[in-house]
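Hey, resending since the last one bounced:
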Amino acid sequence: MTDDPNNHSSISAHHHIAIFHPKHKVLRIIIWSLLLLVLVLVIVLILHLVLAPKAPPHIAPGITITSVTAKNGNIGVYLDAIGTVTPVYTSSITSQVTGQIITVHYTEGQLVKKGDPLIDIDPRPYRATLLQAQGALERDESLLAQAQMDLERYQAAWARNAIAKQTLDDQEKLVLQDDGVVKNDQGTVEYDQVQLDFCHITAPIAGRVGLRLVDPGNLVQSTGTVTLAVITQLDPITVIFTIPEDSLGPVEAQLSKKLKLTVDAYDHTGQTKIASGELLTLDNQIDTTTGTVKARALFNNKNNGLFPNQFVNTRLLVNTLQGVTLVPSSVVQQNGQASFVYVIQSNIAHMLTVKPGVTEGDVTQVDGINPGDVLANSSFDKLEDKVKVVITKVPVSAKTSGSKVS
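The structure tokens again:
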């Protein structure tokens, strides 16, 4: 048999087709089936994502705050200063006569009234001197009376031309001399009576007596070198404080209108008010070394809350601002030199710049907001402009605050 290349090729081709064509077809079917399955799965997944109900988005909670409302009201304009409690009267009592103290009537720290007995000095020497003066006065008054009777006789005799004119004139001068002696005696009696009265020392003013400075048996001198007692008036009492010269104009303007300016006295911490009084007067000149002028305020001190020489903090009410916007001082925040507050609108915090004015206690007058505005009053470390907030009446310190909204 001869080899035919063409015939051999034909046989190889037919043999190849007979062997490999069915396998390719099965593989192709499998591949298309897999592709179709994947396509179906993708379509099902897409439909699931599109048609499945959407979960609500996560909303960050708002910042929990407490709030206050700006109000319309009045607030006082004050001048603060340090003052010294000064009695209206302070009396240091000394002896006007020389003698031995026989009685001390007062006790240390006693409240005395004007005229109450304090100290008695031995009056016997002065009583004896007074008695001598009174005797001399009585003698000379009798001599004067006798001279006056003689004068009347001489006048009647002169009317009858019974005596010379010189005799009448001499008698008239004698009466004048005796009258002068009597007046001198009267002065001596009054002086001795005063000296005797000085032996009984009484309180010249009402007030508190200090510590006892002398004892019975002590010898005192009329030169007044030894203080026997010190009395300070406690009610009413005054406080002296200073006003800056720049503030003198408004104060003078109020005083010129005859207005009574209130002065409050606080303790050294400035927290507890001791008493309220009114401005009494201003000094007549400015202290050039300090640029201030002294002022004196008068206080009723029936409860002895103010003590002489005590240092106090004073607040002088100069003026009262009417119909201004008032907020708690705690809502006003600082950012460098600027002041701002957070105004709450629709549960959103808006940062607004304000201009603080007068502060009285924990209330501040501000410009830049209106009465009725709701303001944040806590959680300032978390607040920012245009963040969501939740207002609560529970103090934030006792309740967990929300986080910032991103």
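The longest strand covers residues 311-328.

Sorry for the duplicate.
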